[in-house]
Amino acid sequence: MMAQTQNSGAGNTCDLISFRIAEQDFCFDIISVREIRGWVPATIIPHAPPCVLGVINLRGAVVPIVNLATRLNLEVMAPTSRSVIIIAQVNGQIVGLLVDAVSDILSVSTDEIQPTPDVVTDDAQGFINGIITLDERMIRMIDLDGILPPRTTQSL
After folding, report:
1. Cα–Cα distance measured from residue 94 to residue 128, given in angstroms and rounded to the nearest whole number
2. By the 8 A CB rule, do 85 and 65 touch?
3. What is the distance between the alpha carbons of residues 40 and 79, in angstroms, rounded to a whole number?
């Protein structure tokens, strides 16, 4: 099902992919999406951050899989055959983002994207860069630049 919002003429229009995690709605710019795949088990990487499930082989390329529920501090469910991996380009790197389901492709005016409320923490504002209200839904717009866990260097 595709939801389309008419451009009000005042702002530019952007296309977003929306998806669900723990019965919550999120989205990000569709330009970052490379493909959408069904769930496949990931190969575990020892000492990876808790949100990194492991890696998968994507046509010969090793791609890390980030569990967005864990990264966004939401209720984490074990992946099922209905789970979806959104392959996206994040900070110049190809990454798989595990979500419960892809919902819609949205076309919204930038005027319809409301700022994140000031009452949320700096951590939350690092992940969410706006909110879109659509019918009865409130869809949080994810800032993909903040999704990957920070790299740490360990000395031996």
Report:
1. 20
2. yes
3. 9
> Is 155 within the bounds of a domain?
no
Whether the CB-CB separation of 91 and 143 falls below 8 Å is answered with: no
The residue segments making up the domain with residue 66 are 3-146
Tell me the C-alpha distance between 19 and 5, whole Å. Answer: 17
pLDDT digits (tens, 9 = 90+) for 70-108: 999 899 988 999 999 999 999 899 999 999 999 999 999
Please state, in angstroms and rounded to a whole number, the distance separating the CA atoms of residues 139 and 48.
29
CA distance readout (Å), 14 to 5, 71, 75, 112, 113: 10, 25, 29, 10, 10
Q: Are 54 and 43 in contact (CB under 8 A)?
A: yes
Residue holding tokens 């791609």?
63
Q: What is the pLDDT of residues 135-155, one digit of tens each?
A: 888 999 999 988 877 665 444
Task: Classify residue 31: in a domain, yes or no.
Answer: yes
